[in-house]
Write a structure and sequence with these properties.
The protein contains 19 helices and six strands. The chain is mainly alpha-helical. Among the domains are: 212 residues, Fumarase/aspartase (Central domain) (Fumarase C, Chain A, domain 2); 61 residues, Ribonucleotide Reductase Protein R1, domain 1 (Orthogonal Bundle). The protein has a two-stranded antiparallel ribbon. Strands 3-4 form a two-stranded parallel ribbon. Strand 1 and strand 2 form a beta hairpin. Helix 4 crosses helix 5. The chain is elongated. 36% of the residues are buried.
Amino acid sequence: MIDRYSRPEMASIWSIENKYEKWLQIEIAVCEALVEKGEIPKSALENIKSNAKFDPSRIDEIEKTVKHDVIAFLTNVAEHVGEDSRYIHMGMTSSDLLDTALAIQLKEASDIILKDLNVLSDVLKKRAYEFKDTVMIGRSHGIHAEPVTFGLKLALWYSENQRNIKRMEHAKETISYGMVSGAVGTFANIDPSVEEYVCKKFALKPAPVSNQIIQRDRHAEYLTTLSLIASSIEKISVELRHLQRTEVLEAEEYFSMGQKGSSAMPHKRNPITAEQLAGLSRIVRANAIAGMENVALWHERDISHSSVERIIIPDSSILIDYMLNKAANLIDKLLVYPENMKKNLDKMGGLIYSEGILLELVRSGIAREEAYKLVQRVAMKIWEKGGDFKELILNNREIMKYITPASIEKAFSINHHLKNVNYIFKRVFES
């Protein structure tokens, strides 16, 4: 049973301490590369490695004066390093530091999200096989259509989640690019080999071309992928909310001992997790729109994207981690009521088998339009007054001129509708 929601690891990735630690690691890596090129003394590197540190509260204090977070950070580090701090940030621009560190954070976040997605797939697969043959009514437009199984619903969600895994893997690759190319990306004051060294050290690829920043279509792809994952979670949540409605009650969120559903009505058991997930998905999608707005910037760079990203990237990453774990827990502990599914299946007096009668008439040689009219005429009587559809068909002389009681029995067979469930499961889970 899954009892975890958002991992502490995801929140820690986006902590201010972790961001500054990444900045420091990158600055040290640049110094290492410059030592190899003979551009700074080895003794300076040793001093930097031994003494470089930062204090977030001191950085905040400095930033109040300089109004620049990277300069405040470098000033604070210099206070610990001393004279050799002049070698830190040589030939770099702020975004070399910011964007490369962000790429590392995004990679780490992607790994957590991929683990979450795989946990959700495992849960969906387990419960899909559990309810593979649990018959229920399929609905189109919210109206009874034809029989399906609850396992097929879960298999459908599993298949979509597998596509989300592929999307997330691609998004991770897309954002795994760093840069150390100087003020406008021309390597005017730093050699490309430094960028290659730094990127290799942090398992990134050098951006083939940049200006002052890594291009924001990469981050937009990441955020859009998260929005698709959120939409899939909402899709599942909306379906479960419908299935929990009192008039339906085919499935229900787990309701724990001592839990309360309403401050006024003691009888209430509400689909609060599914509703919460549906609501949170709106935030993730909205953030993706902001991410796309960040793609178009002035010339080689402006900072209109920066303030936005400080909110949308951590928030969306943390939200998706939380939502995936909540969704997995919801599915894992979901209460399913096959008896109610059977009761609802029989609610329309057999109307759900109308297509089978239509096709039997067509096979007998009647034009489809005429066959449709014959079946619909009988079906509307059941719809309006109730009764047994099968019985009315057997007693309809016009229809019985063309088909036999045996063919009617075949048309009203549940097994006929579910004969390919195993085939579908094989395609989904064994392909």
